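Q: Joint fold for the lines below.
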Amino acid sequence: MSFNRFAAKRTGHGVLVLFSVVAVLFSIRFIYPGDPAILIAAPDASQEVIQSIREDMGLNEPIYVQFFDYMAGLLRGDLGTSYVTGTSVSNQIVGRLPATIELGVAATVISIALSIPFGVISATNRNNRIDSVVTISSLVGVSTPNFWLGIILVLVFPVALGILPTGGREFGLYEAFSILFTTGDVSAIITWVQHIILPAVTLGTYYTALLTRLTRNGMLEELGQLYIRASRAKGISETLILYKHALRNSLAPLLTILGLQIGRLVGGAVVIEEVFYWPGVGRLFINAIRNLDWPMVQGTLLLTALAIVGANILVDISYAVLNPEVEYQ
Amino acid sequence: MISNRLKQNLRSEWNQNHLAKIGAGLVAMFFLFVVFAPILSPHDPTAQNLSDALVPPFQTMEYPLGTDQLGRDMLSRLIYGARISVLVGILSIAAATAIGTTVGMLAGYNSGRLDDVMMRITDVFITIPSLMVAVTIFGLIGPLQVEIPDPFVATGIGGSSMPESFILPGGIIFALSVTSWTTFARVARSEALSVSEENYVRASKSIGSSSPHILLRHVIPNSFSSVLVLATLRIGFAILLESSLAFLGFSGAEFSWGRDIATGRDYLASAWWVASMPGFCIVFLVLALNFLGDWLRDAVDPNLNEGAN
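A: Joint structure:
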Protein backbone atom coordinates (compact mmCIF):
# COMPACT_ATOMS: atom_id res chain seq x y z
CA MET A 1 0.00 0.00 0.00
CA SER A 2 1.39 3.39 -0.91
CA PHE A 3 1.93 6.07 1.69
CA ASN A 4 -0.85 8.27 0.31
CA ARG A 5 -3.34 5.45 0.41
CA PHE A 6 -2.28 4.66 3.96
CA ALA A 7 -2.78 8.29 5.01
CA ALA A 8 -6.16 8.46 3.27
CA LYS A 9 -7.32 5.19 4.80
CA ARG A 10 -6.21 6.24 8.27
CA THR A 11 -8.04 9.57 7.92
CA GLY A 12 -11.15 7.80 6.63
CA HIS A 13 -11.14 5.55 9.69
CA GLY A 14 -10.83 8.65 11.89
CA VAL A 15 -13.85 10.24 10.22
CA LEU A 16 -15.82 7.03 10.77
CA VAL A 17 -14.92 7.00 14.47
CA LEU A 18 -15.95 10.65 14.80
CA PHE A 19 -19.25 9.82 13.14
CA SER A 20 -19.87 7.09 15.74
CA VAL A 21 -19.07 9.59 18.50
CA VAL A 22 -21.56 12.08 17.03
CA ALA A 23 -24.23 9.39 16.78
CA VAL A 24 -23.69 8.28 20.39
CA LEU A 25 -23.74 11.85 21.72
CA PHE A 26 -26.84 12.67 19.69
CA SER A 27 -28.73 9.74 21.21
CA ILE A 28 -27.60 10.52 24.76
CA ARG A 29 -29.43 13.85 24.61
CA PHE A 30 -32.76 12.02 24.74
CA ILE A 31 -31.93 10.32 28.02
CA TYR A 32 -30.07 13.25 29.57
CA PRO A 33 -31.83 14.63 32.66
CA GLY A 34 -33.72 17.89 32.27
CA ASP A 35 -36.07 19.05 29.51
CA PRO A 36 -34.11 21.58 27.43
CA ALA A 37 -37.18 23.74 26.85
CA ILE A 38 -37.81 24.02 30.61
CA LEU A 39 -34.12 24.75 31.27
CA ILE A 40 -34.15 27.60 28.75
CA ALA A 41 -37.53 29.07 29.69
CA ALA A 42 -37.91 31.48 32.59
CA PRO A 43 -38.67 29.68 35.90
CA ASP A 44 -42.32 30.84 35.88
CA ALA A 45 -42.91 30.30 32.15
CA SER A 46 -46.34 29.03 31.13
CA GLN A 47 -46.96 25.76 29.29
CA GLU A 48 -47.58 27.72 26.06
CA VAL A 49 -44.22 29.47 26.25
CA ILE A 50 -42.45 26.15 26.89
CA GLN A 51 -44.33 24.61 23.97
CA SER A 52 -43.27 27.43 21.65
CA ILE A 53 -39.64 27.06 22.76
CA ARG A 54 -39.87 23.35 21.97
CA GLU A 55 -41.24 24.30 18.57
CA ASP A 56 -38.42 26.82 17.95
CA MET A 57 -35.72 24.36 18.97
CA GLY A 58 -37.11 21.76 16.60
CA LEU A 59 -37.69 19.33 19.46
CA ASN A 60 -41.08 18.36 18.01
CA GLU A 61 -39.58 17.27 14.69
CA PRO A 62 -39.08 13.57 13.93
CA ILE A 63 -35.76 12.27 15.23
CA TYR A 64 -34.16 11.80 11.80
CA VAL A 65 -34.94 15.44 10.92
CA GLN A 66 -33.36 16.53 14.19
CA PHE A 67 -30.31 14.39 13.44
CA PHE A 68 -29.85 15.90 9.97
CA ASP A 69 -30.29 19.42 11.36
CA TYR A 70 -27.72 18.61 14.00
CA MET A 71 -25.25 17.16 11.47
CA ALA A 72 -25.73 20.15 9.17
CA GLY A 73 -24.96 22.44 12.12
CA LEU A 74 -21.82 20.49 13.00
CA LEU A 75 -20.52 20.70 9.45
CA ARG A 76 -20.88 24.48 9.64
CA GLY A 77 -19.01 24.45 12.95
CA ASP A 78 -22.20 25.19 14.89
CA LEU A 79 -22.34 23.21 18.13
CA GLY A 80 -25.66 24.71 19.24
CA THR A 81 -26.60 27.16 21.96
CA SER A 82 -25.85 26.80 25.65
CA TYR A 83 -28.98 26.21 27.79
CA VAL A 84 -27.46 28.31 30.55
CA THR A 85 -25.87 31.35 28.93
CA GLY A 86 -27.91 31.33 25.73
CA THR A 87 -24.77 31.98 23.70
CA SER A 88 -23.00 29.95 21.03
CA VAL A 89 -21.23 26.86 22.35
CA SER A 90 -18.60 27.05 19.60
CA ASN A 91 -17.67 30.63 20.48
CA GLN A 92 -17.28 29.85 24.16
CA ILE A 93 -15.13 26.82 23.41
CA VAL A 94 -12.95 28.72 20.94
CA GLY A 95 -12.43 31.43 23.56
CA ARG A 96 -11.23 28.86 26.11
CA LEU A 97 -9.19 26.73 23.71
CA PRO A 98 -5.85 28.64 23.84
CA ALA A 99 -5.65 28.19 27.63
CA THR A 100 -6.07 24.42 27.39
CA ILE A 101 -3.71 24.05 24.43
CA GLU A 102 -1.01 26.09 26.20
CA LEU A 103 -1.38 23.93 29.30
CA GLY A 104 -1.27 20.65 27.36
CA VAL A 105 1.71 21.66 25.25
CA ALA A 106 3.63 23.02 28.25
CA ALA A 107 3.00 19.78 30.18
CA THR A 108 4.12 17.65 27.23
CA VAL A 109 7.28 19.70 26.68
CA ILE A 110 8.20 19.56 30.37
CA SER A 111 7.65 15.82 30.58
CA ILE A 112 9.64 15.04 27.44
CA ALA A 113 12.48 17.28 28.62
CA LEU A 114 12.59 15.47 31.97
CA SER A 115 11.80 11.89 31.05
CA ILE A 116 14.39 11.34 28.31
CA PRO A 117 17.41 12.21 30.48
CA PHE A 118 15.89 10.31 33.44
CA GLY A 119 15.30 7.26 31.27
CA VAL A 120 18.81 7.36 29.77
CA ILE A 121 20.46 7.79 33.18
CA SER A 122 18.38 4.97 34.58
CA ALA A 123 19.23 2.63 31.71
CA THR A 124 22.97 3.36 31.78
CA ASN A 125 23.02 2.73 35.54
CA ARG A 126 21.00 -0.44 35.25
CA ASN A 127 20.23 -2.17 38.57
CA ASN A 128 22.22 0.15 40.77
CA ARG A 129 20.92 2.73 43.22
CA ILE A 130 20.25 5.53 40.69
CA ASP A 131 18.21 3.13 38.58
CA SER A 132 16.11 2.02 41.57
CA VAL A 133 15.44 5.63 42.59
CA VAL A 134 14.32 6.56 39.08
CA THR A 135 12.24 3.39 38.70
CA ILE A 136 10.46 3.76 42.03
CA SER A 137 9.89 7.50 41.52
CA SER A 138 8.26 6.82 38.19
CA LEU A 139 6.00 4.19 39.80
CA VAL A 140 5.04 6.75 42.45
CA GLY A 141 4.43 9.25 39.65
CA VAL A 142 1.87 7.05 37.89
CA SER A 143 0.17 6.23 41.21
CA THR A 144 -0.32 9.81 42.42
CA PRO A 145 -3.68 11.53 41.88
CA ASN A 146 -2.78 14.61 39.84
CA PHE A 147 -5.25 16.94 41.59
CA TRP A 148 -3.68 16.10 44.96
CA LEU A 149 -0.18 16.64 43.62
CA GLY A 150 -1.34 20.07 42.41
CA ILE A 151 -2.66 20.92 45.86
CA ILE A 152 0.61 19.80 47.47
CA LEU A 153 2.56 22.01 45.05
CA VAL A 154 0.29 24.93 45.98
CA LEU A 155 0.94 24.13 49.64
CA VAL A 156 4.71 24.13 49.10
CA PHE A 157 5.29 27.02 46.68
CA PRO A 158 2.67 29.77 47.09
CA VAL A 159 1.52 28.95 50.64
CA ALA A 160 4.73 27.95 52.44
CA LEU A 161 7.45 29.62 50.36
CA GLY A 162 5.41 32.57 49.13
CA ILE A 163 6.53 32.20 45.50
CA LEU A 164 4.41 31.60 42.38
CA PRO A 165 0.65 32.32 42.20
CA THR A 166 -1.91 29.79 43.51
CA GLY A 167 -3.85 29.76 40.27
CA GLY A 168 -5.50 31.66 37.47
CA ARG A 169 -4.13 32.81 34.14
CA GLU A 170 -3.52 36.54 33.80
CA PHE A 171 -3.25 36.42 30.02
CA GLY A 172 -2.37 34.01 27.26
CA LEU A 173 0.93 33.51 25.52
CA TYR A 174 -0.35 35.47 22.51
CA GLU A 175 -1.21 38.52 24.64
CA ALA A 176 2.10 38.20 26.50
CA PHE A 177 4.00 38.31 23.22
CA SER A 178 1.98 41.24 21.89
CA ILE A 179 2.83 43.18 25.05
CA LEU A 180 6.48 42.26 24.57
CA PHE A 181 6.51 43.41 20.95
CA THR A 182 4.56 46.64 21.47
CA THR A 183 6.16 47.85 24.70
CA GLY A 184 9.33 45.77 24.93
CA ASP A 185 8.24 44.72 28.40
CA VAL A 186 9.39 41.18 29.33
CA SER A 187 7.42 41.07 32.56
CA ALA A 188 4.31 39.81 30.73
CA ILE A 189 6.15 36.70 29.58
CA ILE A 190 7.49 36.16 33.10
CA THR A 191 3.98 36.45 34.54
CA TRP A 192 2.76 33.93 31.96
CA VAL A 193 5.51 31.47 32.94
CA GLN A 194 4.82 31.96 36.65
CA HIS A 195 1.17 31.11 36.16
CA ILE A 196 1.59 28.10 33.92
CA ILE A 197 4.52 26.41 35.63
CA LEU A 198 2.69 24.68 38.52
CA PRO A 199 -0.30 23.44 36.49
CA ALA A 200 1.97 22.25 33.67
CA VAL A 201 4.32 20.38 36.01
CA THR A 202 1.34 18.78 37.76
CA LEU A 203 -0.26 17.72 34.51
CA GLY A 204 3.06 16.51 33.14
CA THR A 205 3.96 14.29 36.08
CA TYR A 206 2.04 11.22 34.93
CA TYR A 207 3.51 11.58 31.44
CA THR A 208 7.02 12.10 32.82
CA ALA A 209 6.76 8.95 34.92
CA LEU A 210 5.37 6.88 32.05
CA LEU A 211 7.86 8.14 29.47
CA THR A 212 10.79 7.64 31.84
CA ARG A 213 9.86 3.97 32.23
CA LEU A 214 9.44 3.56 28.50
CA THR A 215 12.70 5.36 27.64
CA ARG A 216 14.55 3.18 30.14
CA ASN A 217 13.11 -0.05 28.80
CA GLY A 218 13.57 1.02 25.18
CA MET A 219 17.20 2.01 25.82
CA LEU A 220 17.94 -1.28 27.58
CA GLU A 221 16.51 -3.18 24.64
CA GLU A 222 18.54 -1.18 22.11
CA LEU A 223 21.75 -1.39 24.14
CA GLY A 224 21.51 -5.18 24.03
CA GLN A 225 21.46 -5.21 20.21
CA LEU A 226 24.37 -6.44 18.12
CA TYR A 227 24.91 -3.17 16.25
CA ILE A 228 25.71 -1.46 19.56
CA ARG A 229 28.36 -4.06 20.30
CA ALA A 230 29.72 -3.61 16.79
CA SER A 231 29.86 0.16 17.28
CA ARG A 232 31.70 -0.27 20.58
CA ALA A 233 34.14 -2.66 18.89
CA LYS A 234 34.76 -0.04 16.22
CA GLY A 235 35.70 2.40 18.98
CA ILE A 236 32.81 4.83 18.61
CA SER A 237 32.49 6.98 21.73
CA GLU A 238 29.97 5.91 24.35
CA THR A 239 28.13 9.27 24.19
CA LEU A 240 27.65 8.88 20.48
CA ILE A 241 26.44 5.31 20.91
CA LEU A 242 23.98 6.33 23.61
CA TYR A 243 22.47 9.40 22.02
CA LYS A 244 22.99 8.92 18.30
CA HIS A 245 22.09 5.23 18.09
CA ALA A 246 20.35 3.78 21.12
CA LEU A 247 18.24 6.79 22.09
CA ARG A 248 17.26 7.61 18.54
CA ASN A 249 16.05 4.10 17.88
CA SER A 250 14.08 3.94 21.11
CA LEU A 251 12.22 7.19 20.41
CA ALA A 252 9.80 5.89 17.77
CA PRO A 253 7.77 3.73 20.20
CA LEU A 254 7.61 6.72 22.56
CA LEU A 255 5.81 8.67 19.88
CA THR A 256 3.10 6.02 19.68
CA ILE A 257 2.61 6.04 23.44
CA LEU A 258 2.41 9.85 23.43
CA GLY A 259 -0.37 9.55 20.86
CA LEU A 260 -2.19 6.80 22.74
CA GLN A 261 -1.98 8.69 26.02
CA ILE A 262 -3.20 12.04 24.76
CA GLY A 263 -6.65 11.13 26.10
CA ARG A 264 -5.17 10.73 29.56
CA LEU A 265 -3.55 14.18 29.15
CA VAL A 266 -6.85 15.82 28.21
CA GLY A 267 -8.68 14.03 31.03
CA GLY A 268 -5.96 15.18 33.42
CA ALA A 269 -6.27 18.74 32.17
CA VAL A 270 -9.97 18.76 33.12
CA VAL A 271 -9.06 18.15 36.77
CA ILE A 272 -5.94 20.33 36.81
CA GLU A 273 -7.90 23.29 35.44
CA GLU A 274 -10.22 22.97 38.45
CA VAL A 275 -7.29 22.82 40.88
CA PHE A 276 -5.54 25.91 39.48
CA TYR A 277 -8.65 27.87 38.39
CA TRP A 278 -7.27 27.67 34.88
CA PRO A 279 -9.89 29.07 32.48
CA GLY A 280 -9.78 26.30 29.87
CA VAL A 281 -12.18 23.96 28.09
CA GLY A 282 -12.01 21.43 30.95
CA ARG A 283 -13.68 23.80 33.41
CA LEU A 284 -16.27 24.62 30.78
CA PHE A 285 -17.05 20.89 30.59
CA ILE A 286 -17.24 20.37 34.37
CA ASN A 287 -19.50 23.40 34.85
CA ALA A 288 -21.70 22.25 31.98
CA ILE A 289 -22.16 18.86 33.70
CA ARG A 290 -23.04 20.60 36.97
CA ASN A 291 -25.60 22.83 35.20
CA LEU A 292 -27.09 20.04 33.02
CA ASP A 293 -26.08 22.16 30.03
CA TRP A 294 -26.14 19.36 27.46
CA PRO A 295 -25.14 21.33 24.32
CA MET A 296 -22.00 22.48 26.12
CA VAL A 297 -21.23 18.97 27.42
CA GLN A 298 -21.69 17.61 23.93
CA GLY A 299 -19.61 20.36 22.35
CA THR A 300 -16.64 19.89 24.66
CA LEU A 301 -16.80 16.08 24.26
CA LEU A 302 -16.92 16.35 20.48
CA LEU A 303 -14.02 18.76 20.39
CA THR A 304 -12.00 16.42 22.62
CA ALA A 305 -12.79 13.47 20.36
CA LEU A 306 -11.77 15.52 17.33
CA ALA A 307 -8.47 16.52 18.97
CA ILE A 308 -7.65 12.96 20.01
CA VAL A 309 -8.58 11.39 16.67
CA GLY A 310 -6.57 14.07 14.88
CA ALA A 311 -3.55 13.60 17.12
CA ASN A 312 -3.61 9.84 16.62
CA ILE A 313 -3.79 10.16 12.84
CA LEU A 314 -0.82 12.56 12.95
CA VAL A 315 1.14 10.16 15.15
CA ASP A 316 0.43 7.18 12.88
CA ILE A 317 1.40 9.14 9.78
CA SER A 318 4.57 10.59 11.27
CA TYR A 319 5.49 7.13 12.57
CA ALA A 320 5.22 5.86 9.02
CA VAL A 321 7.36 8.76 7.77
CA LEU A 322 10.01 8.30 10.48
CA ASN A 323 10.17 4.59 10.06
CA PRO A 324 10.22 3.62 6.38
CA GLU A 325 10.21 -0.06 7.24
CA VAL A 326 6.76 0.13 8.80
CA GLU A 327 4.16 -1.86 6.96
CA TYR A 328 1.05 0.07 6.07
CA GLN A 329 -2.04 -1.81 7.11
CA MET B 1 -7.05 -22.06 35.45
CA ILE B 2 -3.67 -21.53 37.09
CA SER B 3 -1.19 -23.87 35.49
CA ASN B 4 1.76 -25.33 37.37
CA ARG B 5 4.15 -23.34 35.24
CA LEU B 6 2.38 -20.12 36.18
CA LYS B 7 2.46 -21.07 39.85
CA GLN B 8 6.18 -21.64 39.57
CA ASN B 9 6.69 -18.30 37.81
CA LEU B 10 4.64 -16.51 40.42
CA ARG B 11 6.72 -18.02 43.18
CA SER B 12 10.11 -17.31 41.65
CA GLU B 13 9.12 -13.75 40.74
CA TRP B 14 7.79 -13.30 44.27
CA ASN B 15 11.12 -14.29 45.78
CA GLN B 16 13.00 -11.74 43.68
CA ASN B 17 10.48 -8.94 43.85
CA HIS B 18 10.62 -7.03 47.13
CA LEU B 19 8.24 -4.37 45.90
CA ALA B 20 5.53 -7.02 45.45
CA LYS B 21 5.92 -7.98 49.13
CA ILE B 22 5.58 -4.35 50.21
CA GLY B 23 2.56 -4.05 47.93
CA ALA B 24 0.93 -7.15 49.40
CA GLY B 25 1.52 -5.84 52.91
CA LEU B 26 -0.04 -2.46 52.16
CA VAL B 27 -3.02 -3.99 50.37
CA ALA B 28 -3.57 -6.31 53.34
CA MET B 29 -3.54 -3.30 55.67
CA PHE B 30 -6.11 -1.44 53.59
CA PHE B 31 -8.28 -4.57 53.49
CA LEU B 32 -8.23 -4.65 57.28
CA PHE B 33 -9.40 -1.03 57.26
CA VAL B 34 -12.22 -1.91 54.87
CA VAL B 35 -13.51 -4.85 56.87
CA PHE B 36 -12.86 -3.73 60.44
CA ALA B 37 -13.38 0.05 60.05
CA PRO B 38 -15.75 0.39 63.05
CA ILE B 39 -13.41 -1.59 65.30
CA LEU B 40 -10.16 0.08 64.20
CA SER B 41 -11.44 3.68 64.16
CA PRO B 42 -10.80 5.50 67.44
CA HIS B 43 -13.75 7.87 66.85
CA ASP B 44 -16.99 8.10 64.95
CA PRO B 45 -15.76 9.59 61.65
CA THR B 46 -18.89 11.75 61.38
CA ALA B 47 -18.86 13.09 64.96
CA GLN B 48 -18.26 16.85 64.93
CA ASN B 49 -16.56 18.57 67.78
CA LEU B 50 -16.03 22.22 66.97
CA SER B 51 -14.01 22.92 70.12
CA ASP B 52 -11.44 20.42 68.80
CA ALA B 53 -11.40 21.70 65.21
CA LEU B 54 -8.13 21.67 63.21
CA VAL B 55 -6.00 19.94 65.86
CA PRO B 56 -2.59 19.31 64.21
CA PRO B 57 -1.39 15.71 63.81
CA PHE B 58 1.05 14.00 66.20
CA GLN B 59 0.10 16.36 69.06
CA THR B 60 -2.47 14.52 71.14
CA MET B 61 -3.09 10.84 71.78
CA GLU B 62 -6.79 11.39 71.30
CA TYR B 63 -6.40 12.55 67.69
CA PRO B 64 -3.13 10.98 66.47
CA LEU B 65 -3.51 12.37 62.94
CA GLY B 66 -5.32 15.55 63.97
CA THR B 67 -8.82 16.75 63.16
CA ASP B 68 -10.49 18.54 60.25
CA GLN B 69 -12.32 21.86 60.15
CA LEU B 70 -15.36 20.35 61.91
CA GLY B 71 -13.31 18.63 64.60
CA ARG B 72 -13.77 15.17 63.04
CA ASP B 73 -10.97 12.67 63.67
CA MET B 74 -8.68 12.41 60.60
CA LEU B 75 -7.53 8.85 61.33
CA SER B 76 -11.10 7.56 61.56
CA ARG B 77 -12.05 9.34 58.36
CA LEU B 78 -9.04 7.87 56.55
CA ILE B 79 -9.97 4.36 57.74
CA TYR B 80 -13.58 4.76 56.62
CA GLY B 81 -12.41 6.35 53.36
CA ALA B 82 -10.55 3.12 52.52
CA ARG B 83 -13.92 1.37 52.34
CA ILE B 84 -15.15 3.55 49.51
CA SER B 85 -11.91 3.52 47.51
CA VAL B 86 -11.38 -0.23 47.79
CA LEU B 87 -15.02 -1.23 47.28
CA VAL B 88 -15.56 1.16 44.36
CA GLY B 89 -12.31 -0.06 42.76
CA ILE B 90 -13.08 -3.75 43.14
CA LEU B 91 -16.80 -3.65 42.34
CA SER B 92 -16.46 -1.45 39.26
CA ILE B 93 -13.59 -3.49 37.84
CA ALA B 94 -15.36 -6.78 38.65
CA ALA B 95 -18.38 -5.59 36.68
CA ALA B 96 -16.19 -4.28 33.86
CA THR B 97 -14.28 -7.59 33.74
CA ALA B 98 -17.45 -9.66 33.62
CA ILE B 99 -19.09 -7.59 30.89
CA GLY B 100 -15.92 -6.85 28.96
CA THR B 101 -14.56 -10.38 28.80
CA THR B 102 -17.96 -11.87 27.91
CA VAL B 103 -18.56 -9.44 25.06
CA GLY B 104 -14.92 -9.56 23.96
CA MET B 105 -14.73 -13.35 23.85
CA LEU B 106 -17.99 -13.72 21.98
CA ALA B 107 -16.86 -11.05 19.51
CA GLY B 108 -13.42 -12.58 19.03
CA TYR B 109 -14.71 -16.13 18.78
CA ASN B 110 -17.56 -15.42 16.38
CA SER B 111 -15.85 -12.50 14.60
CA GLY B 112 -18.90 -11.39 12.66
CA ARG B 113 -21.26 -8.49 13.04
CA LEU B 114 -20.98 -8.51 16.85
CA ASP B 115 -17.25 -8.03 16.42
CA ASP B 116 -17.74 -5.03 14.12
CA VAL B 117 -20.26 -3.39 16.46
CA MET B 118 -18.03 -3.98 19.47
CA MET B 119 -14.97 -2.55 17.79
CA ARG B 120 -16.90 0.60 16.79
CA ILE B 121 -18.10 1.05 20.38
CA THR B 122 -14.61 0.60 21.81
CA ASP B 123 -13.34 3.14 19.25
CA VAL B 124 -15.73 5.70 20.71
CA PHE B 125 -14.48 4.97 24.22
CA ILE B 126 -10.83 5.30 23.20
CA THR B 127 -11.60 8.66 21.63
CA ILE B 128 -12.95 10.30 24.79
CA PRO B 129 -10.84 10.39 27.99
CA SER B 130 -11.99 8.01 30.75
CA LEU B 131 -12.48 10.87 33.18
CA MET B 132 -14.81 12.71 30.80
CA VAL B 133 -16.78 9.53 30.04
CA ALA B 134 -17.16 8.81 33.74
CA VAL B 135 -18.23 12.37 34.57
CA THR B 136 -20.77 12.40 31.72
CA ILE B 137 -22.28 9.08 32.82
CA PHE B 138 -22.43 10.27 36.39
CA GLY B 139 -24.21 13.41 35.19
CA LEU B 140 -26.62 11.15 33.33
CA ILE B 141 -27.57 8.78 36.13
CA GLY B 142 -26.80 10.71 39.33
CA PRO B 143 -25.30 9.39 42.58
CA LEU B 144 -27.57 6.30 43.06
CA GLN B 145 -26.67 5.93 46.71
CA VAL B 146 -26.92 2.43 48.17
CA GLU B 147 -27.05 2.27 51.94
CA ILE B 148 -25.29 -0.77 53.38
CA PRO B 149 -25.66 -1.62 57.08
CA ASP B 150 -22.38 -2.13 58.88
CA PRO B 151 -22.29 -5.81 59.98
CA PHE B 152 -20.14 -5.15 63.06
CA VAL B 153 -22.24 -2.31 64.37
CA ALA B 154 -25.49 -4.21 63.63
CA THR B 155 -24.32 -7.25 65.61
CA GLY B 156 -22.95 -5.11 68.42
CA ILE B 157 -19.32 -6.23 67.97
CA GLY B 158 -18.10 -2.83 66.84
CA GLY B 159 -18.50 0.23 69.00
CA SER B 160 -22.14 1.27 69.27
CA SER B 161 -21.17 4.89 68.68
CA MET B 162 -20.07 4.10 65.12
CA PRO B 163 -22.22 4.86 62.04
CA GLU B 164 -24.78 2.08 61.58
CA SER B 165 -24.43 2.05 57.83
CA PHE B 166 -22.33 3.45 55.06
CA ILE B 167 -23.27 4.72 51.62
CA LEU B 168 -21.92 3.01 48.54
CA PRO B 169 -21.88 5.40 45.55
CA GLY B 170 -23.70 3.27 42.97
CA GLY B 171 -23.54 5.99 40.33
CA ILE B 172 -19.74 6.11 40.53
CA ILE B 173 -19.41 2.33 40.41
CA PHE B 174 -21.65 2.21 37.34
CA ALA B 175 -19.83 5.09 35.64
CA LEU B 176 -16.41 3.51 36.26
CA SER B 177 -17.45 0.08 35.01
CA VAL B 178 -18.88 1.59 31.83
CA THR B 179 -15.60 3.47 31.43
CA SER B 180 -13.45 0.37 31.90
CA TRP B 181 -15.22 -2.53 30.20
CA THR B 182 -13.91 -1.80 26.70
CA THR B 183 -10.29 -2.37 27.79
CA PHE B 184 -11.23 -5.86 28.96
CA ALA B 185 -13.29 -6.47 25.84
CA ARG B 186 -10.31 -5.69 23.61
CA VAL B 187 -7.93 -7.93 25.54
CA ALA B 188 -10.44 -10.80 25.73
CA ARG B 189 -11.19 -10.42 22.03
CA SER B 190 -7.57 -10.71 20.98
CA GLU B 191 -7.05 -13.67 23.33
CA ALA B 192 -10.13 -15.41 21.92
CA LEU B 193 -8.95 -14.73 18.37
CA SER B 194 -5.52 -16.21 18.98
CA VAL B 195 -6.82 -19.21 20.94
CA SER B 196 -9.37 -20.12 18.29
CA GLU B 197 -6.54 -20.26 15.73
CA GLU B 198 -4.72 -22.91 17.76
CA ASN B 199 -4.63 -26.42 16.36
CA TYR B 200 -6.05 -28.10 19.45
CA VAL B 201 -9.10 -25.82 19.28
CA ARG B 202 -9.55 -26.64 15.61
CA ALA B 203 -9.24 -30.30 16.48
CA SER B 204 -11.79 -29.87 19.22
CA LYS B 205 -14.17 -28.20 16.75
CA SER B 206 -13.64 -30.93 14.18
CA ILE B 207 -14.69 -33.64 16.61
CA GLY B 208 -17.88 -31.68 17.12
CA SER B 209 -17.35 -29.79 20.38
CA SER B 210 -19.96 -27.10 20.91
CA SER B 211 -19.03 -23.43 21.04
CA PRO B 212 -19.93 -23.04 24.74
CA HIS B 213 -17.71 -26.03 25.49
CA ILE B 214 -14.76 -24.53 23.59
CA LEU B 215 -15.26 -21.14 25.23
CA LEU B 216 -15.42 -22.59 28.74
CA ARG B 217 -12.78 -25.28 28.29
CA HIS B 218 -10.18 -23.48 26.18
CA VAL B 219 -10.77 -19.76 25.62
CA ILE B 220 -11.57 -18.67 29.18
CA PRO B 221 -8.75 -20.60 30.92
CA ASN B 222 -6.23 -19.31 28.38
CA SER B 223 -7.26 -15.68 28.77
CA PHE B 224 -7.55 -15.87 32.54
CA SER B 225 -4.06 -14.72 33.48
CA SER B 226 -3.85 -11.71 31.17
CA VAL B 227 -7.31 -10.56 32.27
CA LEU B 228 -6.21 -10.94 35.89
CA VAL B 229 -3.11 -8.77 35.33
CA LEU B 230 -5.17 -6.14 33.58
CA ALA B 231 -7.79 -6.16 36.34
CA THR B 232 -5.19 -5.63 39.08
CA LEU B 233 -3.70 -2.67 37.25
CA ARG B 234 -7.12 -1.25 36.38
CA ILE B 235 -8.34 -1.33 40.00
CA GLY B 236 -5.65 1.21 40.83
CA PHE B 237 -6.72 3.35 37.91
CA ALA B 238 -10.38 3.11 38.99
CA ILE B 239 -9.41 4.24 42.49
CA LEU B 240 -7.58 7.25 41.03
CA LEU B 241 -10.61 8.08 38.88
CA GLU B 242 -12.98 7.76 41.84
CA SER B 243 -10.88 10.19 43.85
CA SER B 244 -10.76 12.66 40.94
CA LEU B 245 -14.53 12.49 40.49
CA ALA B 246 -15.10 12.94 44.23
CA PHE B 247 -12.69 15.88 44.21
CA LEU B 248 -14.73 17.49 41.42
CA GLY B 249 -17.86 17.02 43.52
CA PHE B 250 -19.24 13.95 41.74
CA SER B 251 -19.47 11.32 44.43
CA GLY B 252 -22.50 10.54 46.55
CA ALA B 253 -20.31 8.80 49.11
CA GLU B 254 -20.23 10.04 52.68
CA PHE B 255 -16.56 9.22 53.14
CA SER B 256 -14.21 9.63 50.26
CA TRP B 257 -10.56 10.54 50.28
CA GLY B 258 -11.05 12.63 47.15
CA ARG B 259 -13.88 14.60 48.72
CA ASP B 260 -11.94 15.20 51.92
CA ILE B 261 -9.06 16.57 49.83
CA ALA B 262 -11.49 18.98 48.17
CA THR B 263 -12.76 20.31 51.51
CA GLY B 264 -9.25 20.45 52.99
CA ARG B 265 -8.20 22.68 50.14
CA ASP B 266 -9.95 25.66 51.77
CA TYR B 267 -7.73 25.28 54.86
CA LEU B 268 -4.35 24.90 53.15
CA ALA B 269 -2.84 27.98 54.74
CA SER B 270 -3.81 27.04 58.32
CA ALA B 271 -4.09 23.23 58.27
CA TRP B 272 -1.91 21.40 55.75
CA TRP B 273 -2.89 17.95 57.02
CA VAL B 274 -6.57 18.00 56.05
CA ALA B 275 -5.91 18.00 52.31
CA SER B 276 -2.63 16.11 52.29
CA MET B 277 -3.30 13.02 54.46
CA PRO B 278 -6.05 11.44 52.32
CA GLY B 279 -3.77 11.87 49.29
CA PHE B 280 -1.03 9.82 50.92
CA CYS B 281 -3.57 7.03 51.43
CA ILE B 282 -4.49 7.11 47.73
CA VAL B 283 -0.82 7.06 46.67
CA PHE B 284 0.02 4.12 48.98
CA LEU B 285 -3.00 2.07 47.92
CA VAL B 286 -2.55 2.64 44.18
CA LEU B 287 1.22 2.16 44.41
CA ALA B 288 0.69 -1.13 46.27
CA LEU B 289 -1.72 -2.32 43.57
CA ASN B 290 0.79 -1.35 40.88
CA PHE B 291 3.53 -3.30 42.67
CA LEU B 292 1.28 -6.36 42.76
CA GLY B 293 0.16 -5.84 39.17
CA ASP B 294 3.76 -5.61 37.95
CA TRP B 295 4.63 -8.79 39.80
CA LEU B 296 1.68 -10.65 38.27
CA ARG B 297 2.52 -9.29 34.83
CA ASP B 298 6.14 -10.33 35.05
CA ALA B 299 5.14 -13.81 36.17
CA VAL B 300 2.42 -14.24 33.54
CA ASP B 301 4.20 -12.77 30.57
CA PRO B 302 7.39 -10.74 30.80
CA ASN B 303 6.77 -9.35 27.32
CA LEU B 304 3.33 -7.95 28.02
CA ASN B 305 2.88 -4.44 26.72
CA GLU B 306 3.65 -1.62 29.15
CA GLY B 307 1.01 0.62 27.68
CA ALA B 308 -1.76 -1.84 28.57
CA ASN B 309 -2.91 0.27 31.48
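Q: Anything notable?
A: Chain A touches chain B through 52 residues (CB under 8 Å). Chain A is about 80% helix and 0% strand.
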